[in-house]
Write a structure and sequence with these properties.
- The chain has four helices and five strands.
- With 167 residues, the protein is of the alpha/beta class.
- Helix 3 packs across helix 4.
- The chain starts with a helix and ends with a helix.
């Protein structure tokens, strides 16, 4: 019995010493899409083709620009990278009158060097997609909310990537 108790105590001491040892965490590598957003503060904007257009491009651009600024980005003129493209897909279903499906897509385009082709390209490096349903009468407010939600999420990803990069 004494040998068994000694064995248990010894196991507990070993387990406690292992648990008390310093824990070295290997820095987890962020996905490349997220890494590409580090230190992204200035963006040009592009309004991509919108399927089921319900708002003119001028109004959409104005709202998108304001949402990006509220999220902490500086919006610059032109379409040179880095740029962020906004696209909406608006759908309806005959079996659900008055209900609209709204998909919001943000795609960040940046200049990259593709080693395999030995070529500099501008490509989408990260995308955010969100879908929701709303009543037809609430579409305008829903679009406004979705733009802000998407740009806030983009800002969070940029902060996360920037913080990770500085470690």
């Amino acid at each position: 019995m004494r040998t068994c108790a000694t064995g248990i105590v010894l196991c507990l001491i070993i387990a406690a010493s292992i648990g008390a040892a310093p824990v070295f965490q290997r820095r987890a590598e962020l996905p490349g899409e997220l890494q590409s957003l580090a230190s992204l503060h200035e963006l040009a904007i592009v309004i991509d083709h919108t399927i089921g257009r319900v708002m003119d491009e001028y109004t959409l651009r104005k709202r998108f620009s304001a949402a990006l600024r509220r999220s902490g980005f500086k919006v610059v003129e032109g379409t040179a990278p880095p740029r962020v493209a906004l696209q909406y897909i608006v759908t309806t279903e005959p079996d659900m009158p008055g209900v609209i499906g709204l998909t919001t897509i943000l795609a960040v385009h940046q200049g990259v060097t593709l080693r395999r082709l030995e070529k500099d390209l501008t490509v989408p490096v990260a995308s955010l997609v969100h879908a929701t349903l709303c009543r037809e009468k609430d579409l305008d407010a829903t679009m406004e909310r979705e733009i802000q939600t998407a740009t806030d999420r983009l800002a969070d990803y940029v902060k996360q990537a920037s913080k990770h990069r500085s470690k």
